[in-house]
Amino acid sequence: MSTSAYKLRLGPLPRTETVKLTVVLTTALKADLERYAALHAQTYGEPVDAVALIPHMLESFIMRDRGFKALKTKLPRSRLGAVG
Known about the structure:
mainly alpha, 50% helix
């Protein structure tokens, strides 16, 4: 079965402004991230660095977190640690 028959949760990556952060991962998580990047590249026909996936995965996770959404609407931005 080809990888195009599978649908990955993370779609094609958009172009965005970035801020650099340092992240420490377990070796197992890093290996899974690299495997995911390889599958993503096969699925969408464009090579992608595993590190480039991290912000998009985090954004997807946060957007789907119901508890965070509920708190975000109830608390002022300053209480959630917003900058600016």
